[in-house]
Amino acid sequence: MAVDADYDAFLDHVRRLTYVGDAGSVLMWDQEVMMPEGGTPARSKQRSALSGLHHELLTDDDVADWLDDLADVDLDDGQQAVVREVSRKHERASRVPEDLVEELSEATANAHPVWAEAKEAGDFSQFADTLEHLVDLRREYAAAIDPDRDPYGVLFEEYEPYLGIDTAEAVLTDLREGLVPLIDEVADSDVDLATPFDGEYDTADQRALSETALDALGYDWDRGRLDEAPHPFSSGTQFDARVTTRYQPTDPIDALSSTIHEFGHATYTQGLPEDHYGTPLGQSRDLVVHESQSRFWENHVARSRPFWEYFAGTVVDHLGTPADPDDLYEAANTVHPDTLIRVEADELTYHLHVALRFEIERDLIRGDLDVDEVPGVWNDKMDDYLGVRPEDDGEGCLQDIHWSHGSFGYFPTYSLGSVLAAQLDEAIRANRDVDALVREGKFGPIRDWLREQVHRHGCRYTTPDLIRSATGTTLDADPFLSYAREKYGNLYDC
Q: Which of 84, 236, 318, 467 could join 241 in a cystine, given CB atoms 3.0 to 4.6 angstroms apart?
């Protein structure tokens, strides 16, 4: 068979594989946003069937044959990238039994309502057996891929396959060691930042504000939508990239920040090449890069003083809050270590929340921590790192949805994405007057730079190569630490 025919047949198979996976993502979105509460028994079976089919397509003997045939063929750079990405996933998936894949999918679908009810009740014991089952399944999954390696490192590669857990831990250590003294200095400061929000704000008004922000930033409503979810998230493809947020009656900044964070994810997804949909060239480059996009827009744009100079009037119009840009800038950047909820945490202490979760899930997967110990260890670490203790498990170890998804190894990507966001911010400022653009509400040139340097490449490059291409360097915590020290040193006079 001709090489072109081999590659074309291979690519057709890859597209079908992708379409099945994307269909499963839509079912997951629906379950978390719109599905009636009683739909779980059927949905778990549907998602399990699609996961099984996806696994079957990925591990098909024909895929192995095509990869063997194409290994020594002179392919162009894009074709080589497609083969590399599919080969990596095929090799991992081929080691995992299909029945384990289906069991994991069904278990996570069934876990969602159990987690939601336990969270509402603030009672970890209602979720403990489910979590233990998921931990056991994920350990089994990691052992199937490579029984001789650190299981947590194997699972981390599900979300970031090219940086490696050693690199991740080194960067996270640098980040934590640099942030702790800064947070202590802020805590010791006598400066009190503005608190312009008082009372409760109607959900409809907050939604209108979020919609206006998405309009201003350039969200493509023809290929997206805004909904509510208990835990904000974004999912989809370049043709359908949806965002969710949640509204807190007394804290409209929370919903606005969440919406803009998810916009960062969605604008990356919407910026992927349309003509490569269905192949790795039309897919995002894993979660560190994805998180860098959301954290860039949330923090380096929407928490900047120029943004509030541009957007303050819009906030006043929608919420009736008499506040000037400086007040809103301070409110968006107040450091409050006593915050119990990660997604409500400030830009600095957020990373201590991530460190806590990373350490707990790593020890769970490695067998160094029993499931029934999680609430106590969680509360002790919260006290140690942030000086607060949750009153119940709903605002403690049950607050995040990730473990109900079986997503162990995910949490480090949040902080690593923030690190990369600061590097991208540094790089873009060498090419654009970002503050002037933001102050004038001209976000298009910023999106265009990110699209050119990051979005359009899909998975053409590995993560280290993409970082080097966009920033000229390797992943490094120093730009974030420098940015944080300058910004919060000025805010808190420390």
A: 236
Q: What is the DSSP string of 252-285?
A: HHHHHHHHHHHHHHHHHHHTS-GGGTTSGGGS--
Class of domain 165-492: mainly alpha
Per the DSSP assignment, residues forming a β-bridge with 226 are 243
Residue type (1 letter), 364: L
Given the residues 160, 262, 298, 330, select the one marked as catalytic.
Answer: 262
Whole-angstrom Cα distance, residue 79 to residue 197?
53
Give SS3 for 244.
strand
**Active-site annotation holds for 32:** no
Residue with tokens 């979720």: 127
Please tell me whether residue 240 adopts helix, strand or coil conformation: strand
Q: Answer for the pair 153, 165: CB distance below 8 angstroms, yes or no.
A: yes
Q: What tokens appear for 322 in the block?
A: 């008499």
Report domain extents, the chain. Answer: 3-149, 165-492
**C-alpha span between 84 and 161 (Å, rounded):** 12
pLDDT classification of 1: cutoffs 50, 70, 90: very low
pLDDT in tens, 71-101: 888 999 999 999 999 999 999 999 999 899 9
User: How many angstroms separate the CA atoms of 366 and 199, rounded?
Assistant: 46
Q: What is the pTM of this model?
A: 0.94
**Spatial distance between the Cα atoms of 70 and 478, rounded to a whole number of angstroms:** 41
